[in-house]
Design a protein that fits this description.
Number of helices: 17
Helix content: 40-55%
Oligomer: single chain
Shape: globular
Order of helices and strands: EEEEEHEHEHEHHEHEHHEHHEHHHHHHH
Largest sheet: 8 strands, parallel, barrel
Length: about 375
């Protein structure tokens, strides 16, 4: 397993990190049996970095990490990361309360890597107003956390301004080859890398979008090297960038675990010919009107109960794969009161979306392109 010593921290970490955001589920809850076996295999292979957060899996991911890792493995054999949910902090004392609960959930006195979750400039200002930056430094001095940083969803210029003011131990950004060419990942990367900060990557396969490919894109990878997964190209693309220390992958199945372990054993740097394969795939991607949703589910608290992320997944499946069980069975699957037509355009989902998707606009587009006909035919 490829490893790297993090600059200025004196910690060696596997370059592959396990994101505990997309664990396997059974009956709507984490499938502990399967998930623990996945953890065991990752630990056996030398993966040492595990990332969770306050609200992953409906606030149960931290407790899973406590049971699957902290209670079953020597504390010095891995590092655990979790995050302060800035959106849930409405007063300074909220941060103290949440932090204590998180340490209890994990079953630790000290959290290894602690992040302010999902910052943009307004989030940064909120943290400053509540003194959260000082709290993290205080907790570090008290031994309650080892290293502090933040995950970021915002403008590259703002990232640079925050890094200059905050001087964190590390930063976590979304980085993948799709967003490099059509989004702002390139500028975010340069903002972080030029300042020499330890860099952790999230979203390397863009929530599965760079794995669930349409036939034309899949053929680009299959013809280049049969048997090698599209995910391995995306992960190695990130690993090939100078300054990228840890690449998180939110694994859901044992098969994904095995593929990722294989990817990070041996040489992870892409050859020139492999880069050309990705360039050809991107040419096909650019032709698709896909909604840039990563299925993070930050929009799930819609007060009307509209499953926005499921709707976007169905639409993207239709665009990328030529069919969608969800959209074709929309009226059967989605009850009245929770449909696109029930949206009140309050905009709360758009404020929560780390991808800055114009959700109201996109839902109208999906309705016109896919759902209106379903509703007309049912009458």
């Amino acid at each position: 397993m490829e490893k790297r010593i993090l600059k200025g921290l004196g910690v060696e970490s596997s370059r592959l990190g396990m994101g505990l955001m997309r664990l396997p589920e059974k009956n709507g809850k984490i499938d502990y049996e399967t998930a623990e076996k996945m953890i065991d295999r990752l630990m056996e292979s030398g993966v040492t970095y595990y990332d969770t957060a306050w609200f992953y899996h409906d606030h149960t991911s931290e407790a899973f990490a406590g049971r699957a890792l902290i209670s079953r493995y020597p504390r010095n054999s891995f590092t655990i990361a979790t995050k302060m949910p800035v959106g849930d902090v409405n007063a300074p004392e909220d941060a103290d309360r949440i932090f204590d609960i998180q340490r209890s959930n994990l079953g630790v006195e000290t959290i290894d890597f602690y992040l302010l979750h999902g910052l943009n400039w307004s989030g940064w200002e909120k943290c400053a107003n509540f003194g959260l930056h000082d709290k993290l430094r205080k907790w570090k001095k008290e031994g309650k956390l080892r290293f502090f940083g933040f995950s970021f969803h915002g403008d590259p210029e703002d990232l640079g301004r925050i890094l200059d003011a905050y001087n964190p131990d590390f930063v976590q950004i979304q980085l993948n080859y799709y967003d490099w060419f059509v989004g702002d990942s390139k500028a975010l990367y340069h903002a972080a890398n030029s300042r020499g900060v330890n860099l952790i990557v999230m979203g390397p396969v863009r929530g599965g979008a760079l794995v669930n490919l349409n036939e034309k894109i899949a053929r680009v990878f299959d013809l280049a090297e049969p048997g090698r997964s599209a995910a391995s190209y995306a992960l190695r693309w990130c690993a090939s960038l100078s300054g990228v220390d840890i690449i998180l992958s939110g694994m859901t199945t044992p098969e994904q675990v095995e593929d990722n372990i294989k990817t990070f054993q041996g040489n992870t740097r892409l050859s020139d010919s492999e880069r050309e394969v990705i360039d050809r795939a991107m040419n096909e991607y650019k032709k698709l009107p896909i909604i840039p949703c990563t299925q993070c589910k930050y929009c799930k608290n819609c007060h009307k109960g509209i499953e926005i992320y499921s709707l976007f997944a169905g639409y993207n499946e239709k665009v990328a794969l030529g069919g969608s069980w969800l959209l074709e069975n929309y009226l059967k699957l989605v009850p009245e009161g929770k449909r696109v037509t029930d949206c009140e355009e309050c905009g709360k989902c758009e404020k929560a979306c780390p991808q800055n998707i114009e959700i109201v606009k996109e839902m109208k587009r999906i309705y016109e392109a896919c759902i209106r006909q379903c509703m007309h035919e049912s009458k």
